[in-house]
Amino acid sequence: MSHPLSRQDTAPSLRPRDCANVLRGALLGNIQDAAEAIGRCAANRDRETLFALPALREEVMTSLDIMRESALALPEADKADMPDVPWARWEAMHFSHAGSARERRNQVWSVIHELVPTTLQGVSRYRGLLCDGRDTEASRPRTAPARQAS
Fold first, then answer.
1. 124: helix, coil or strand?
2. What would you measure as the largest C-alpha separation in the chain, in angstroms?
3. To the nearest 10°, the Cα dihedral for 100, 93, 54, 60?
4. What is the C-alpha to C-alpha distance for residues 128 and 146, in angstroms, rounded to an integer?
5. DSSP letters of 59-122?
6. What pLDDT was estimated at residue 136?
7. How far from the centroid of its chain's Cα atoms is residue 133's Cα?
8. Rounded to two decimals, what is the model's pTM?
9. Closest Cα partner for 143 from 48, 41, 68, 50?
10. 85, 79 Cβ separation under 8 angstroms
C-alpha cells in the first residue's frame, strides 16, 4: 500500500514564481520579526541599560544581523517597491571591532532608533500591499523602538 502523498500526480509542485513568493515572504517576515524584537528590547530603556544587559545586547545584535542578511538576500525588484527603506545602509552596515566600544554603541543606538523603525514601517506597509491591500494583523508592526534620551 502506498502513501497518498508519495504519488507523483498528487504531490504539490511549486512553480518558480511560487518559490519566489515564498522566499520574498520569508525574507520580509524575517525583517519584520527582527525589527519587532529589537523594539521590544529597546522599549523604555536608555542606552546604558540596553548595553549593560548581555541578553538584551545579544538579542539586538542577532536581530540586526538577521535584518541585514535578509535585506541583502531580498530581490532588487522588491527593494525598488520600497524606496522609503534605506537599503544601501543595510547593505553597508557592519559592526566591526574597529573604533572604541563607545563608538560601536553609538552606531548601534542610532540604527535601533533611526534605521530599524523606518525599515519596519516600509516593510510592514509593503507586506500589507502584498496581502491585497488588506490591513492584516500579521502586516502591522507590534512594537517599534521608542526614542530614549542618551
1. helix
2. 68
3. 150
4. 23
5. HHHHHHHHHHHHHHHS-HHHHHT-TTS-HHHHHH----S-S-HHHHHHHHHHIIIIIHHHHHHH
6. 43
7. 20
8. 0.76
9. 41
10. yes
Number of other CB atoms surrounding residue 142 within 10 Å: 14
Q: Do 35 and 141 contact (CB within 8 A), yes or no? A: yes
pLDDT over threshold 80, residue 131? no
Q: How many CA atoms lie within 13 A of 113 on its CB side?
A: 17
* pLDDT at site 98: 65
Q: What nine digits make up the cell of 115?
A: 534605521
Q: What is the pLDDT of residues 21-67, one digit of tens each?
A: 888 899 999 999 999 999 999 999 999 999 999 999 999 999 999 99
